[in-house]
Structures are given as structure tokens and as C-alpha cells.
Amino acid sequence: MEAKKRNKPLKIAGSLWKKYSFVLVFILILVVYAITISSNGNTFNWGHISGILSSQNTVIVGTMALGMGFVIITGQIDLSVGSALVLCSGVTVVVFNITNNIFLTILAALGSGLILGSINGVLVAYAKMPPFIVTLGTMLIYRSLALSQVRAISPDITGSSSSQFALLSDNSSYNFLRMVFGTGSLKIGAFSIPYVTFLFVAMVIIFVYISKNTKYGKSVYATGSNEKATHLVGIKVQRVKFSVFALTGLLVGVASLIQVCKIGNITPASSAQAYEMYAIAAVVLGGINMMGGRGNVVGILFGALSYTTINFIIVSIPSLSADIQNTFQGLVLLLVILVQTAGPAIKEKFTGRRKVVTQL
User: Fold this and answer.
1) How far, rounded to the nearest angstrom, does the alpha carbon of residue 18 sit from its chain's CA centroid?
2) Is residue 344 predicted with pLDDT exceeding 60?
């Protein structure tokens, strides 16, 4: 009886960790960031929090990570999101510079993203090609297309030299577009929260609802958990697989709109490099299992915040060379995956031994 009472706090702690580990991990990383800032002689304040909320890694990568989360839950992967972002951004800029129409610009961003994601979905779901190979191929194709077109299209349309797509600032809609989807923020007293942060949080809420309260969300988890059993109960697995790639493409379109409005331009040769890895990292830090079928979509929000904060910690260490920064990012990612894979095995081994002892 006493042993059960002693074990109760451990069981509660274990249950909380299992359900909300992504929140606890973010808090821990944020504390480390605060300590790092203080050690440099600065005061940790709301400006640092606002920087995390409005960062590219949080909003742009986080938006793509929502789609990536659904892809990974189904047991697949998408390596093309960074390149797709570049190509969608180029289309968005060109349409805006030609039409000076906000509605058509938004439609171009979402439509181009949906098309690129659907190409992946068709090849994976209906042609039954491996998602790793498909998205590796389209990763090369999408960036190459953007790079070739920025050199082929007139600078009067691309808005810049032969190496960039840039929004024309003399457009009458330029300031409005950049304010709403880029640099604008809502001031609440002494606090300032970017509009794009509200947009990102709204998307998180929508996708959490879809994952938890809709038949579609349950079919996504079921497909990743046991594809054969899911097919046998009447769920169209191929359609689900196609849909998560199309959905990811749509979110890449949203991210491309934020990218061009926040930065003002996109450089096909160098922009969004490794964004697919950052999106996967945000998903993993958010507690989504890489094997598929498990994970809480709300964790992606905290995963994006955590990964951004890790970047800020690395940048805030003066003695750390920029050449070695990706090493620390990679180590954090490997550590999180190790906890995901080794944790359950250790727990099973421990509980199995305890059961044997109890039986004896």
C-alpha cells in the first residue's frame, strides 16, 4: 500500500510528461535562453519573447510544420517544402507586381502551393512511389524552376535583379500587404504582438480541432498507426495520403505569402535553405512520433517556439562560431529523437522486470 502511495507522484509526473512534454521542453529551453541573455549583461524582457513569436523560424517554418506534422503522422515525409516555398514565393511576387491586386496575390500563393503539394500527393498516393524519393526529386525541381525563372523573367516583373524576386514598393497595395502579412503588429499596452503570430496561432487551433474532432483527423492517425487495418475498415488510405501532401502545399503557400511580405523578397539560390529540416525538427520537438500514428498537433506550436529559441541561444553565445551552429541544432534534433525511440523501450523493459519481480 505504501509503495503504491510512493509511486503515485511518479505516475502523475510520468503522465504529465507523456501528454505535455513539448510544453515542459519549451519552458526549459526558454529558461536557458533567459540565463544566456543575462550572462551577456542584458535583461531578459518582452522584446525577447516578441522576437521568438515573430521569428521566421516560428511563423514561416511553423506554418509549414503544421502540414509536415500531418504528413509524418501518416508515416511519410516531405523534403520539398523549402524549395516549394521558394517557387511559391516567386509566383506570389510576380502576380503582385503584375496585378497590384491583393486578392489575386493571396490566391496565387495558396494556389501554387496547393498545386505543388498535390504533385507530391499524386506521385506518392496513386503512383505509389516512396515519399522520400518523390519529395527529394521535387525538392530539386522546384528550386531549379524558381532559379531559372528569376533569370528569365524581366526585372520589371521580378522587381529586382536577375537573382531575386522582390515586391515592387511603388505598388499601392505594398504597404497594406506588408503590414498585415509581414511587419505589422498589434500593440496592447506595453506589449506588441505581430499580426502574423495571431495568424499562426489561429492555424494551430484549426489544425488541432481537425486532428482531434473530425473523421478526417482520425483517419490521418489511423493511416499512420496501421495502414492495412485502416484500409480494411473502409477508409480510403490513398486519398488520405494524397490529402496530407496537398494540405502541406497549401500551408507552404501561406508561408510563402508571409515570407515575401515579411522580408520583401526571395532569393532562389539561397533562401529557405534547410527549411524542410527545420520543419521536421519543429514537428519532432513538438512530440510527433516519426514512426507515425502518434502525437499531439498542438505540440508543433511549442516545437516551433522551441527550435526558434534554440537558434536564439546559439546566436547569443559570442564565442560560438557561425560555422558550428548547425552542429548544435543537429545534436538537439538527434537527442529528441533518441528520447522518442529509446524512452518507450526503456520503460517497457523496466515495467516488464517489475512485473516479473511482483509475480515472484
Assistant:
1) 21
2) no
